[in-house]
Amino acid sequence: MVTISLCMIVKNEENVLERCLNSVKDLVDEIVIVDTGSSDNTKEIAKRFTDKVLDFEWIDDFSAARNFSFKHATMDYIFWLDADDVMLEEDRQKFKKLKEQLTSDVDAVSMVYHLAFDEYNNPIYSFRRFRLAKREKNFVWKGAVHEYLEVRGRLLQSDVAITHRKEKKEERNDRNIKIYEKLLEKGEKFTPRDLFYYSNELKDHGQYEKAIEYYERFINHEDGWEEEKIRACINMAFCYRSLGNIEKEIETLIRSIQYDVPRPEVSCRMGDLYLERKLYDKAIMWYQFALMVDTSNIQGIVQKPYSTWYPYLQLCVCHWHKGDKELAVEYNKKAKEYRPNDPSVLYNEEFFKKYFEEQNNEK
């Protein structure tokens, strides 16, 4: 059986680090914790789990810190987590099985990352990341911000999931955008990935016009991952919507389809636009598109609501307005399967009940 080093970079994570390490300590053979300047009890907590607690002077470069942590690993494979990640029991068992069956010809393994959840604890925002890498391949992290592990060779896609669990709601901070702006001031040439993530930071900070400018630079670049170009179109459409330019929003949503089949999020937004104009047949077509796409093989971001309950709820509305009452009821039931206590679903149920009771009384 292969051996595994867990490598982490941390700073002021005393509220979550112990939970993270408890969920994986028996799954790995070595733990390496690199602290980038904690002022709380993070290092003391880390020392309860390992004697490899190292310091790294923060230089506004996440890749540099992660590469430093990887250099201190000694096992066959390197596994990485953030302090606010956790492995749930089902995934712990999957990880154990993966470790038992992993063969030395595999160079890197991707895992699903569940980043956000609804009130029923269902993942609503997920994507894949390479989490396990063969140490002797000396794979390196790239990018000062929104870093990524550059891997190649024989790559395995696993069913293991990592769960992101913040103790409290994350507040928007300007750390990342400031790092990017410092790089620009230095005259650093942005990679396509840098362009994409800098655009995202601009969007998230409400700088919509500048975000559009940089999204265009990224999309028009001959390189760049197609999944990120799809996401860039979706995010740019949001910027146009925020600026009140609906026509450009539609144009940009449609632009995303040149890279692959319409993402459910794109289809639902197109459906919403037609629904707002009371063009129900066209709206129905787009919502049906959202339900047709198999999201299991999408390597980029997957937002589950747009391929599950949301289009069903909107189809309920469309068919009701078209006069297809029974079909509207059925679609509401399908939405309820995903969100049994959703206020809109329950409102619809009560509305339908009263409507049909009145219809029966009139007979």
Automatic annotation (TrEMBL):
Cited SMART domains: TPR
Xref: InterPro entries: Glyco_trans_2-like (IPR001173), Nucleotide-diphossugar_trans (IPR029044), TPR-like_helical_dom_sf (IPR011990), TPR_rpt (IPR019734)
Protein name: Glycosyltransferase involved in cell wall biosynthesis
Pfam families registered for this protein in UniProt: Glycos_transf_2, TPR_8
Highest rank taxon of the organism: Bacteria
CDD domains xref list: Beta4Glucosyltransferase (cd02511)
Keywords attached to this entry: TPR repeat, Transferase
PANTHER family (alphabetical): GLYCOSYLTRANSFERASE, POLY-BETA-1,6-N-ACETYL-D-GLUCOSAMINE SYNTHASE
